[in-house]
């Protein structure tokens, strides 16, 4: 941490900063300039300390962090890429893993039909929400346990792993007894008790980016998932809220290379929730693969016109099959395959 003293700060004020650092067993390097004094506070855990510790002391102008606040998710901590393994499928390797299916599980028939379509087109994982985080309490909330049972049936029938959202710490046991991958939704990215409970399960988990969260906050949330021993974390960019309102959210394509540099965790992209409209999904899905994403999470519905949730952004079976063909070409051009 770099503690910049105010112009004219007294020797006592500088010494108070030095003593505070020493009381925390941190190293100190003093740089006394003609105008200003700067105190470098050194130690491997300064990323996890609050800058307030020094900012509140008299005579301090500013405190700047050098170390990142996240640790377990960082590439400094683990230089080698993490591979998340789900059954026989690995996320983070050469294969681009496509997870596809309806926004919500609506019925056994709808899910079975979806599974058949997405598997036939080459998706590796079936998605489907049984617990839905809806903006209004009066909207369809998902089939809950019954939806999980349908997911388990589809997994058996089509020999495909399933990913589904868990919204509440009290339901982690239930959902993980059915799901191959737990999904933490955008609205729950900073639900720290949920993240801690999931950390204890040690099973694969997709952490969606909070739509108003920075990449640093996202990676620090990933640290919560890893703090109790889970190493199987996949990051999912799904669009953030910006001033732009023509799409549902703004897909942060830049997040992909930024995360690849900052973290060892696999990165997937959800073009469906970012776009909000089926016509935009193929272009941004292809951009994500070209930019280095390790996978995609795509909403596909056998009949989007009748979908209970997110019909407008869901691909039809034929649009999805066409997109998969196009994605194979892009994947090949970046040395990957689907
Ligand atoms: C979803 O994937 O079904 C979902 C609700 O996404 P998000 O949490 O990104 O809004
Ligand atoms: Mn949805």
Name the strands of the widest sheet in spatial order.
Answer: 7-8-9-10-11-12-13-14
Q: Give the tally of β-strands.
A: 14
Fraction of residues in helices?
25-40%
Secondary-structure element pattern, one letter each: EHEEHEEEEHEHEHEHEHEHEHHEH
Chain-averaged pLDDT: 97
Task: From the alpha carbons, calculate the radius of gyration and give it in angstroms.
Answer: 23 Å
| CATH homologous superfamily annotation of the largest domain | Aldolase class I
The CATH architecture of the largest domain is: Alpha-Beta Barrel
Please give the CATH class of the largest domain: Alpha Beta
**Shape type:** elongated
State the end-to-end distance: 44 Å
Q: What is the third-level CATH name, the topology of the largest domain?
A: TIM Barrel
The poorly predicted ranges are none
Bound compounds: phosphoenolpyruvate, manganese (II) ion
Summing up helix and strand content along with how strands pair, one would put the structural category as alpha/beta
Fill in the keyword field for this structure.
single chain; 338 residues; alpha/beta; Alpha-Beta Plaits; TIM Barrel; 2 domains; 8-stranded parallel β-barrel; 11 helices; 14 strands; 33% helix; 18% strand; elongated; binds phosphoenolpyruvate; binds manganese (II) ion
Descriptive report:
Helices cover 33% and strands 18% of the residues. The radius of gyration is 23 Å and the shape is elongated. Helix 3 runs parallel beside helix 4 and helix 6 (192-201) crosses helix 7 (215-227). It is built from 11 helices and 14 strands. It folds into 2 domains: 2-64, 2-Layer Sandwich (Alpha-Beta Plaits); 84-333, TIM Barrel, CATH 3.20.20.70. The strands form 3 sheets. It has an 8-stranded parallel beta barrel, surrounded by 5 helices. The chain has a 4-stranded antiparallel beta sheet with strand order 2-3-1-4. It starts with a strand and ends in a 5-residue tail after the last helix. With 338 residues, the chain is of the alpha/beta class. It has helices at residues 11-23, 52-55, 108-121, 145-158, 172-176, 192-201, 215-227, 255-262, 271-275, 281-290, 317-333, and strands at residues 2-5, 27-32, 37-42, 60-64, 84-86, 89-91, 97-101, 125-127, 162-165, 181-184, 205-208, 233-237, 267-269, 295-299. Strand 7, helix 3 (108-121) and strand 8 form a beta-alpha-beta unit. The structure holds phosphoenolpyruvate and manganese (II) ion (MN). Manganese (II) ion binds next to loops.
């Amino acid at each position: 941490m770099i503690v910049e003293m105010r112009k004219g700060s007294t020797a006592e004020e500088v010494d108070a900063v030095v003593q505070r650092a020493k009381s925390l067993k941190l190293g100190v390097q003093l740089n006394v300039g003609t105008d200003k004094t700067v105190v470098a506070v050194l130690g491997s855990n300064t990323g996890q300390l609050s800058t307030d510790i020094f900012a509140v002391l008299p005579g301090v102008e500013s405190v700047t962090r050098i170390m990142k606040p996240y640790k377990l998710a960082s590439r400094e901590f683990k230089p080698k890429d993490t591979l998340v393994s789900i059954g026989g499928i690995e996320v983070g390797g050469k294969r681009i893993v496509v997870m596809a299916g309806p926004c919500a599980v609506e019925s056994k028939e709808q899910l079975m039909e979806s599974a058949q379509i997405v598997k036939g087109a080459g998706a590796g994982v079936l998605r489907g929400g049984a617990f839905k985080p809806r903006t209004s309490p009066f909207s369809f909330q998902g089939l809950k346990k019954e939806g999980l049972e349908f997911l388990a049936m589809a997994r058996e029938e089509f020999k495909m792993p399933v990913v589904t959202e868990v919204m509440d710490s009290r339901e982690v046991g239930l959902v993980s007894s059915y799901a191959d991958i737990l999904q933490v939704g955008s609205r729950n990215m900073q639900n720290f008790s949920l993240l801690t409970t999931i950390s204890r399960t040690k099973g694969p988990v997709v952490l969606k980016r909070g739509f108003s969260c920075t990449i640093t906050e996202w990676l620090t949330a990933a640290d919560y998932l890893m703090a109790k021993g889970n190493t199987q974390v996949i990051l999912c960019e799904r669009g953030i809220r910006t001033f732009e309102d023509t799409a549902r959210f703004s897909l942060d394509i830049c997040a992909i290379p930024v995360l690849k540099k900052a973290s060892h965790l696999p990165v997937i992209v959800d073009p469906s929730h970012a776009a909000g409209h089926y016509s935009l999904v193929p272009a941004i899905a292809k951009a994500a693969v070209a930019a280095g994403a390790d996978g995609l999470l795509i909403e596909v519905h056998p009949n989007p016109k009748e979908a209970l949730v997110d019909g407008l952004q869901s691909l039809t079976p034929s649009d999805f099959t066409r997109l998969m063909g196009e994605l194979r070409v892009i994947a090949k051009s970046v040395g990957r395959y689907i």
